[in-house]
TrEMBL record, chains A, B:
It comes from the Bacteria. It comes from Melghirimyces algeriensis. PROSITE patterns: HTH_RRF2_2. GO terms for cellular component: cytosol. One of its GO terms (molecular function) is DNA-binding transcription factor activity. This is Transcriptional regulator, BadM/Rrf2 family. Pfam families: Rrf2. SUPFAM superfamilies: Winged helix' DNA-binding domain (SSF46785). PANTHER family: RRF2 FAMILY PROTEIN (PTHR33221:SF9), WINGED HELIX-TURN-HELIX TRANSCRIPTIONAL REGULATOR, RRF2 FAMILY (PTHR33221).
Length: 132, 132
DNA sequence: TCATTCAAAGACTTTACATATCCATAATAT
DNA sequence: ATATTATGGATATGTAAAGTCTTTGAATGA
């Protein structure tokens, strides 16, 4: 299992939007070009972030995407869930009597990762002087 | 991203081998039947565990698979790494100046999950009376 | 020694999903 | 009006997971 490229695009795009002025939307052309991905494809990915309520899109000339929330409220986990979905990473399909004990361990492990991603915010990266 | 079904099969098979007598190997037919998977396919999966040195296979009549290590040394992470590989779950392909700050966060999150899976052992489930 | 029982391995198929591309449509600024 | 920009649907394409089939090789025991 691997995180999808779409998640990589989404995270990098969000970092750009967080560091950009919230007043001006950034066009998908610009966002796509800096990541070496086609604008139409990136647009599809960003639509998922729009539906998750994290960013908003402005059509027409000088349009593009911009944050629709406070920067500080945006965690890694929000973005990842918007792209990858919120389903558990491990599903035991067998019919045990009660809950599968293996699955219980796996879910606990997943929670550890999620907990870290929930604490991690994009703004924090900017403060450390990260290059987008 | 999801864990593969192969990981599910491997974990359940290992739990069976841990709970079985180490003297007698268990045939892949038996292991496969109890999980509703074809023997040839399960055999492919188990071969990876053999190569990882966790179990050993005995050919010929009364053959099968059995543990090749102490039960207590077998962690969830060992099994998962043997099946899914050890590559990082997240790879940023872009060329930043130095290491990608987003990737650093993702790797840290992954470590949290791995740390939990390294502590989790199959024997512990048996003591809790888990049904295989 | 010979048939039987078992795993290993290679070639192959099928399925599912990620990764796009293309085009028509709708919204908006100038 | 026209240029600019996102949206959505249809449609490839690529790749990995999931599974089958068949042959080979190793061990047992009669």
């Amino acid at each position: 299992m691997r995180f999808t490229k779409a998640t990589n695009y989404a995270l990098h795009t969000m970092l750009m939007l967080v560091s950009a002025s919230p007043a001006k939307p950034v066009s998908v052309q610009k966002l796509a070009e800096s990541q070496g991905v086609s604008p139409t494809y990136l647009s599809k990915i960003l639509t998922r972030l729009v539906k998750a309520g994290m960013i908003e899109s402005i059509s027409g000339a000088n349009g593009g995407y911009r944050l629709s929330r406070n920067k500080d409220d945006i965690t890694f986990l929000d973005i990842i869930h918007a792209i990858e979905g919120t389903a558990s990473l491990f599903e035991c399909n067998f019919v045990h009597g009660d809950e599968c004990s293996i699955q219980a361990v796996m879910k606990e492990a997943e929670k550890k990762m999620e907990s870290h991603l929930r604490k991690a915010k994009l703004v924090d990266l900017l403060q450390k002087g990260a290059n987008v």
